[in-house]
Amino acid sequence: DADVTQTPRNRITKTGKRIMLECSQTKGHDRMYWYRQDPGLGLRLIYYSFDVKDINKGEISDGYSVSRQAQAKFSLSLESAIPNQTALYFCATSGMADTDTQYFGPGTRLTVL
Amino acid sequence: GQNIDQPTEMTATEGAIVQINCTYQTSGFNGLFWYQQHAGEAPTFLSYNVLDGLEEKGRFSSFLSRSKGYSYLLLKELQMKDSASYLCAVVDSNYQLIWGAGTKLIIKP
User: Fold this and answer.
1) Residues of chain A neighbouring B90 (CB-CB closer than 8 A)
2) pLDDT, tens digit (0-9, with 9 covering 90-100), for A39-58
3) How far apart (Å, rounded) are the C-alpha atoms in residues B12 and B105?
4) Distance between CA B61 and CA B54 in Å, rounded?
5) How many beta carbons lie within 10 A of that of residue A52, not counting itself?
6) How many CB atoms are located within 10 Å of the residue B47 CB?
7) Closest CA to B33 of B98, B93, B104, B94
8) How far apart are the first and last CA of chain B?
9) In chain A, what residues touch B8 (CB-CB under 8 Å)?
10) Does residue B43 belong to the interface with chain A, where contact is any CB pair within 8 Å?
11) Are A76 and A89 in contact (CB under 8 A)?
12) What is the phi/psi pair of residue A85, to 5°?
């Protein structure tokens, strides 16, 4: 079984709709992250969480929100989707050390029409 | 600003050796990661360097020079399955991970 899972894997939606992307992990890690990836650009951090009570904005948090429901679950929401949020979204987890390796989920391909 | 530069694309021949370079200008340095990412898939960890020098791991090696703000990933005995993007990422002074745009490596028979 995969250590980091994401649902859905693919989603097509319309402008203005609310979308939730979910991430679960069985690695026992405290730290979780949401990234988006666009062609020709590096991974960009949206939000990150170091434990259930800790939520931090990343480089590009505008238009997104997150919820850390449990140590193992971290959800990303787009309150009102817009076309330039079309991207590949990845969830990642890591251990407690600041330089621990990040482990990625399989990604969610989101298309906003 | 913070910047990581990698070539956009490289082509190499099966069985050969290829070196993928990464130069960085970041606010502080606490290590450098290399990840492999096949098209449409998740990035997977290859190596982590925090001290100068070469670290070898099977067919893959990673080199770091902190004074030059430079790293490279060396892939030997290339196989078709090595066709992928290779991502360089630097841990800055705030322990944030700064990602390069990646180098797409194309392997030809």
Assistant:
1) none
2) 888 899 999 999 999 999 99
3) 7
4) 7
5) 15
6) 20
7) B98
8) 40
9) 40
10) yes
11) yes
12) -95, 5
Q: Smallest Cβ distance to B95: which of A88, A90, A98?
A: A98
**Chain A: nearest CA to B102, how far in angstroms?**
7
Is residue A97 very low, low, confident or very high in pLDDT (cuts 50, 70, 90)?
confident
Of A98, A104, A109, nearest to B42 by CB-CB distance is: A104
pLDDT, mean over chain B: 96
The model's confidence at residue A1, banded by pLDDT at 50, 70 and 90, is low
CB contact B58 to A (< 8 Å): no
pLDDT above 70 covers a percentage of chain A that reads 98
Residue in B89, B85, B87 with CA at minimum distance from that of residue B104: B85
pLDDT at A41: 86
The mean per-residue pLDDT over the stretch A22-30 comes to 96
Rounded to a whole number, what is the distance in Å from the CA of A104 to chain B's nearest CA?
Answer: 6
A104–B43 CB contact, under 8 Å: yes
State both tokens at A19: 């979308």
Q: Per DSSP, what are the bridge partners of residue B34?
A: B47, B88
CB B85 within 8 A of CB B99: no
